[in-house]
Amino acid sequence: MRQLENKVAIVTGGASGIGKAIVELFVKEGAKVVISDLNEVLGKQLAITCGENNATFIKADSSSPEDNKKIVDLAIEKFGALHIAVNNAGIGGAAATVGDYKIEDWKKVIDINLNGVFYGMLYQIPEIEKVGGSIINMASILGQVGFAQSSAYVAAKHGVVGLTKSAGWEYGTKGVRVNAIGPGFISTPLVDNALDKSTLDYLASQHAFQRLGKAEEVAELALWLASDKSSFVTGSYYPVDGGYLAK
């Protein structure tokens, strides 16, 4: 039997990169998946590839409380329940030192990367409580350490880890497990297209494996946390970082 047979999942930011890899693996393991993203073209294409009986797409902004409610409502309407939510949508944000960081840039990163996770959980938890299941919040290695010129991103991801720990404790007896994943630098279209080769080589050198991670490697951890195999795991943070945090 497949690990997520008869389960219903939400994956935000699911049209590309890590989110796409999670969607594809969850469908392979038997889940019905609601894919949310701002990229309508890629999102619809992925849903078609997965099959209309296995996946559906909704264009949604993770920083919008209303859109997060619509995502959950669609899962219930289309597939009848909600067992798993992966709050993956996020942005890197502007690069600047703290003293030069523009307020509007700060608010944008916090709205998407931290508030968006809270809004998602706010509407996901009541439905998951009904059937039992798992919430997986996408943090980062930068949810544990600092990084120059990325204060908003670092603050948001630290916040995601704290939010995850609190929710994990609150819902331990209510059938909802809540955990966070901390990817290292992962080779995705967003990263590969945004950075030049010398920067990518430098980032690779900061991992024990001397390479960037693959989206599929993050997806495997998400699958374990979504499945019953992690039944005694909640309120935890799991790096998948090629040894970045070990140095």
Instruction: Please give the count of helices.
Output: 8
If strands are numbered along the chain, what order do they take across the biggest sheet? 3-2-1-4-5-6-9
Number of E-type strands: 9
Q: Stretches where pLDDT falls below 50 for ≥5 residues?
A: none
Rg (C-alpha, Å): 17 Å
- Helical/strand content category: alpha/beta
Report mean pLDDT, rounded to a whole number: 97
| Strand percent estimate | 15-25%
H and E string: EHEHEHEHEHEEHHEHE
* Main sheet overview: 7 strands, parallel
Written overview of the protein:
It contains 8 helices and 9 strands. It has 247 residues and is of the alpha/beta class. Strand 1 (8-12), helix 1 (17-28) and strand 2 (32-37) form a beta-alpha-beta unit. The N and C termini lie far apart (40 Å). The model has no long low-confidence stretch (mean pLDDT 97).
List the helices and strands and how they pair.
Blueprint: E1 8-12, H1 17-28, E2 32-37, H2 40-50, E3 55-59, H3 65-79, E4 84-87, H4 103-131, E5 133-138, H5 151-170, E6 176-183, E7 186-187, H6 189-194, H7 197-205, E8 213-214, H8 215-226, E9 237-240
Parallel strand pairs: 1-2, 1-4, 2-3, 4-5, 5-6, 6-9, 7-8
Helix pairs in contact: 1-8, 3-4, 4-5
Features:
seven-stranded parallel beta sheet, alpha/beta, 8 helices, 46% helix, two-stranded parallel ribbon, 247 residues
Put the structure in a nutshell:
The protein has 247 residues and is α/β, with parallel strands linked by helices.
